[in-house]
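Hey L., structure's done. Input below.
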Amino acid sequence: MSILEGIRKKLVRASLVLTSSYVAGTVVQSNNDENQLIIELGLTKGSLTTVELKVEFSEDNSVFYQETAKSTSGGTETDVIVEHQISSTGKYRLAIPIMDRYIKISIKGTGTVTNSLAVINAKLGQV
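Output:
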């Protein structure tokens, strides 16, 4: 089997101007055998200071849990809710392991939204 077999690509957000509040794209539904999410973000920053992207997960498409990250120092683990912050125009690829059925990807701009654009695709597959 080719590595590309079984990979599904979904448009989450068409290329649109960003807003200063989070706007969710189309909720993506994974299959039982998919355990990897690749987010492809095409960003034109324009006059924005930064762009923030958040990813949330749900089993029932109703109650969502935001992605978290951890750091450990002196035996203490600190867990925080993740917002991916981007400060340059470009094409970005974020890889996230998944075990949830529904995935919501939201994006917002910080600063002046003039001339900003963002398109988001999600690729789902099995590693």
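Residues 3 and 115 are 37 Å apart (CA to CA). The first strand starts at residue 8 and ends at 16.

-- N.
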